[in-house]
Amino acid sequence: MEKCLIFVDSEYAKNAIELLEVARQIFDLAPYETYALCIHDITESANGAFDHIIYVSDESVKCHDAKAIAIIMEELHVIHNFGAILIPATQIGRMLAPRLAIRLHVGLVADVTAIEHIDGALQMVRPAFSGKIMACISNLGKKPIMMSVRQNVFLYNEDLNKATSHETFYPKSDLTTNIKWIKTVEKPKSKDIRDSEVLVSGGGGVKKGFHRLTELAEALGGEVSASRHIVDSGIASRSIQVGQSGKTVSPKLYIALGIYGSLQHVEGLKNVKHIISVNINKDAPICSLSDIVVEGDAIEFIEKLVDKIKSEADESK
Ligand SMILES: Cc1cc2nc3c(=O)[nH]c(=O)nc-3n(C[C@H](O)[C@H](O)[C@H](O)COP(=O)(O)OP(=O)(O)OC[C@H]3O[C@@H](n4cnc5c(N)ncnc54)[C@H](O)[C@@H]3O)c2cc1C
User: Which residue's CA is minimally distant from atom 41 of ligand 1?
Assistant: First the structure.
């Protein structure tokens, strides 16, 4: 039976569940068991999702201390001989994965966005050269297969009612660190576009009136996002760019205003439930992916929809 270790970044627990889908695709039909590594905090969603939870409560291990966590994962690998080790490509995950790969003397594929099996061989796919090509990488060396996985790309739809076993792990190594905890600063409320259920997204067609998107996003309780055209024009920050070289998003509703729908943009739309596009050209590629297409000027659309939402809200008072 193969074993797969998944690191749970407690700040982004949802991404650890996504990695279960990666494990499913790696092992395909072969039997395997999943192990979640939780530091200090047993994330609620891990219960029932994983076969085993390994919990480390040692106070000397800080949850952001990638060096100590890499040592713990190495110790676990010596015990379990994992076939695969999966780490979400969060900030901590990006620090942790290369440290662990060096300790285990294995290759690491970073920021994986797809898994393929070609002629019986597993290939990990990731954007390379700033997203200009998708690189397919095989592991020809020894196990474990190690990768960090881009957030929000995979969707796990399987059983979340497993009888999860729990084990507290006591690392043997000296985990004394030079890192000093100075103070905890509360993170400002996240407005990460990856967390929003509604995205009002603008492209080249709304370049002049991009600021108007905020009115519609506020009326719908969503966030504003953008295509690279808008970001490269200096109108919006890269943190709200959707696409291959931006973020992968999965809202319930994506309103694409004046967006053409290039391959690189659409690459960032994974598991989006509904797309409404507004475009003066109904043959733009984004329209063929949309549930509703409005042919016309996007700013006019915003004005009319915001007015309608406001007047309906007034009537219901
Ligand atoms: C390596 C690489 C990585 C890339 N990564 C990304 C990425 O992560 N994200 C990304 O978005 N792009 C990315 N791109 C760029 C991508 O190829 C496109 O150039 C870009 O997505 C185009 O943005 P757009 O659709 O907003 O603009 P345009 O291509 O300019 O399209 C504008 C659209 O608006 C419509 N329009 C015009 N006026 C109006 C109006 N008044 N009302 C309504 N519609 C109107 C037009 O018909 C057109 O469909 C990448 C490119 C490369 C080479």
Answer: 297
